[in-house]
Amino acid sequence: YDVNCPTRARYKKYELAEIGENMIKQQIVDISSRTKMENNVQKKKSYTYSLQFWHLVTQSDKAAIAYAEKEISKDAAQRARDGLIAYASKESIDQALTRAFERTDSRRLTAWTMTNAAYAQDMLADVVNMAYEIAKFEQFVIICLDIETLRACYALGFDCGAINNEDNTGLRSAVQNTKFIVSHWLTMRNTPFAFFEMDVWFLQSASTLPMVAKLQNMGQNYNESIDMLFAAHQNNPTATNIGFYLVAASKRTQEFFSHCIEESQKHRPRAHDQNIVHNMLSYHRAYRRKSRIPSEKQWKDKPRTPKPENPIEFAFIPPHIGVSSTHPIPTERTVFVHTLGTVPLQAQHGKRIHAKELGIWHGAFLGYYARPWLFRQRYTPTPAFFKHKFLALDGHPLGNAISISEIFGYHNPRHLKARLAFLITIAKATGRILILPKIIADYHLYFTWPFLDLSSLQGLCDFRETNFFSNPKSWLNYTHPFLSIAQVSYTNKAIGIRFPYTQNSPTWYTSPNYMEQSNHWTLFAHLMDSLLSDTQLILLHDGIVSNDFVRIVTNCKSLDQCEKQHSYLTRLTRFIHLHLKFCGETINLDRPAAKTFQGFDCFGSGSPDHADPNSILNEGEG
Prior knowledge:
single chain, 7-stranded mixed β-sheet, 8-stranded mixed β-sheet, alpha/beta, elongated, 15% strand
């Protein structure tokens, strides 16, 4: 990864017979490092920082208020206290929205979004940071759809609020009613606004959209002919997408949203809100242009609301400027991307991992990436990023990849599962963030997450998407993606370490009795804890994964039935493997990376290889 150093293609793959004098004999080292790694593997929970925060502040009103007072300010704590009491008292819609937007200037353009815990738990602060730093909105408010999200927002001192409405009996009802109610309320307040959903990612300033720039500058004095600006679908420039829309407050837009509320609550309560808006736009445009209105027989979704007295005029954002699609194609001129799913309001994780692989995930908050570095924009690296330590696979011509098209493990899903389990074991034992490997099968590359259920990694290790390496936001600067890198080869007989910034060949380490695998594992733990503890990225060659290793890890129901010469590492890997879940016995060849979309994600849908993980670590040696 360093253009000034030898490439990995020149990294000599040493055979054990060639090591010779380069091998350094080591005495048995202190086992404290090994004990620490074993304890890491057996921990039941290993939350990321964002989830630790989420569990801390969402457990009660008191916890959220205490966090706001300690970490933000006393004023933030008082706002949290007042807001949470008001929510519990079920204040009116007008009171709730007045509270949410109380710190905004009604004369200026205000951006807002709405969210529930499914989205907010690991991207709430990211979206707020993106709204201000990337989209360049001057005012931003979050409308929360549940008490957990409201607590988290108040704990962080954000401008937020919630409508405690018992009539919103489901997620669709809550989203649909809230979207129309808040939009109508803002037009009644005479506030120009921009709305975007939580799965919309801005790549540059929204002011590059002409209407946004005018509303930012003119506010309530905006008097152009276009009342509303909507996103369209990438494959259809006139198909409305309400993931993003921009509204100039006027009598026309007041009437439009009042009609949407009536249609949604009275005439078509089961209809999708996007369908309601699309038809209402056509309805208003027909009256504005004095076109013939089709009958209900000709137009099955024709709105049943009264004839609009002040029909609106609207326009669509070009589909490659605002990209909304299940298979989005962002370009350098793209302002925002809306990752769509096959089912509205569902599969939040699939949308997130898809956005990450596309490189459009914001990820600046808490150091997910080094910086929100997009196209020609450059920022100072996030301090939290320097605390992260990463692990990736090495030793394959295609880098961080597992191939099932080679002689070793040819078309064998057991090899694939064992190697994934080994990587996750090392990541958990060392407390490192795993960069998911790509999978190579015959003619195509595949992502890991359509095969491995990433929900089973929760509590095991944190991870990053496969394209993390190729995303400029993850790089420290133009030439160095990480502060330090080490290549580590873990074989049956020795452990090789090479620092590519300073070494051309690896140094090999072994224990006096390398056939005693507990000693070998102890040596590995000692090297990781001493020589490699500060290394930001470790590229690991899994030479120890042999056919016997695969058989022991994936096929033995009881480790007492297996050979004990591979004892401890195989037990650890076996322990991890039994907690992993997979979607299918092998990868789905119809889901290559080139065709990836949210629907490929198998989060929460996988099954374990075996039903009962048991207490593998207590069996036999170790």
